């Protein structure tokens, strides 16, 4: 794989396959810093270049203003100047934070990504969207700036848990619904539920298919003024589910995909048979395809966490840290999160609405109508 995105605003991006050890061929060792987390250093540190490291928290915790400030501080300690290259190694939260920090440090320094999760490979690392969360809302502060390079080592996916892999498959399924035809059939024929169940060749084909599709859209609409809004398919409701349940991003998007397909059927835009094809594919990849399934999965995860806590601390520590239950209160939290969506314009919200596999369109839907459907949907 060797794909170029020609940036419309002065920066181009090259996306290529290769081993993590080949990072030394893409950046100057004397002027580069790796941004990563402790788990990635444990898993892959032996093959990474011996460059200075800025360590950040794992997961969404990294995408905060306090962590951004800490990363700036590390850049200052290292004396990073305008000739530096910031290289993010890890998942999407690492690349989101690092890309934004690099885009704003010294008014912008060079940066590149080496994603190690499927979600980061097919989504976060491609397209030049960088940012951090603010007051509980995702990606409220950010920038559009392309990484100079993205190095894809599908061998790194072997270290993922099944849950992490499946989270990435949600974006793959989304791309398959958007792209239609050959790519949908490829994903539908393989429908992997883990990295171990898919051979390296299949992983390469799936990653390249998603990356090539998204890269084409990004090149035509870098700042998301038109066609790129299609990539929000499943995200409007998905982000709201994520905020309300605490589920991983990909699982929440999958629940959003299933819900928006059902809404499209109700509105008379999508045939039920087409919606069933899309929903069945996501489900076959081990993902929740409704708000109810998402809540049940979040509850199971919470109960497992409580059981582990009880085993470690005794019955006194058995209270679940987060135990959502489906019902009006939970649905109201999902509906309330819709109001804060960046795509809302007054009383309406711009939604990527599927009409068929390979046919998704942007429509304005009244926020109240969307909230009403969230309250009644499966």
Description:
By secondary structure, the chain is α/β, with parallel strands linked by helices. The protein has 2 domains: 2-159, Rossmann fold (3-Layer(aba) Sandwich), CATH 3.40.50.1970; 163-194 and 233-296 and 323-376, Dehydroquinate synthase-like - alpha domain (Dehydroquinate synthase-like, alpha domain), CATH 1.20.1090.10. The protein is 47% helix and 17% strand. Strands 1-2-9-6-5-3-4 form a 7-stranded mixed sheet. A 3-stranded antiparallel sheet has the order 10-11-12. A hairpin with a 2-residue loop joins strand 11 (348-356) and strand 12 (359-366). The longest helix is centred in the last third of the chain and has 23 residues, at 291-313.
List keywords for this structure.
2 domains; alpha/beta; 378 residues; Rossmann fold; 12 strands; Dehydroquinate synthase-like, alpha domain; 3-stranded antiparallel sheet; 7-stranded mixed sheet
Describe the structure concisely:
With 378 residues, this protein is of the alpha/beta class.
Find the structural class using helix and strand composition: alpha/beta
Percentage of residues in helical conformation: 40-55%
Please work out how many helical segments DSSP would assign: 13
Share of residues in strands: 15-25%
């Amino acid at each position: 794989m060797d794909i170029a995105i020609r940036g419309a605003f002065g920066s181009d991006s090259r996306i290529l396959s290769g081993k993590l050890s080949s990072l030394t061929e893409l950046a100057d060792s004397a002027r580069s810093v790796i941004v990563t987390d402790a788990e990635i250093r444990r898993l892959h540190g032996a093959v990474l270049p011996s460059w200075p490291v800025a360590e950040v928290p794992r997961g969404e915790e990294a995408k905060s203003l306090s962590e951004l400030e800490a990363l700036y501080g590390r850049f200052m300690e290292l004396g990073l100047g305008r000739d530096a290259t910031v290289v993010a190694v890890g998942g999407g939260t690492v690349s989101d934070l690092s890309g934004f920090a690099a885009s704003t440090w010294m008014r912008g320094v060079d940066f590149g990504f080496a994603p190690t999760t499927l979600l980061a490979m097919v989504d976060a690392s491609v397209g030049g969207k960088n940012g951090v969360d603010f007051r509980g809302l995702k990606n409220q502060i950010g920038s559009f700036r392309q990484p100079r390079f993205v190095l894809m080592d599908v061998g790194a996916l072997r270290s993922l848990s099944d849950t992490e892999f499946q989270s990435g498959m949600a974006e793959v399924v989304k791309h398959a619904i958007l792209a239609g035809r050959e790519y949908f059939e490829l994903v539908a024929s393989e429908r992997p539920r883990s990295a171990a169940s898919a051979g390296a060749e299949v992983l390469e084909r799936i990653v390249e298919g998603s990356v090539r599709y998204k890269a084409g859209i990004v090149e035509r609409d870098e700042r998301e003024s038109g066609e790129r809004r299609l990539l929000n398919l499943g995200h409007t409701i998905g982000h709201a589910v994520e905020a309300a349940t605490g589920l991983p991003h990909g699982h929440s998007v999958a629940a959003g995909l299933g819900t928006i397909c059902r809404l499209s059927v109700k509105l008379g835009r999508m045939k039920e048979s087409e919606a069933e094809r899309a929903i069945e594919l996501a489900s076959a990849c081990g993902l929740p395809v409704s708000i109810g399934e998402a809540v049940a999965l979040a509850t199971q995860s919470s109960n497992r966490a409580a059981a582990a806590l009880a085993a470690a601390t005794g019955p006194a520590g058995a209270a679940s840290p987060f135990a959502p239950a489906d019902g009006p209160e939970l649905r109201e939290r999902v509906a309330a999160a819709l109001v804060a969506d960046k795509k809302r314009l007054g009383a309406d919200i711009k939604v990527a609405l599927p009409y068929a596999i390979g046919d998704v369109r942007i429509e304005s839907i009244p926020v109240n109508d969307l909230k009403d459907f969230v309250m009644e949907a499966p």
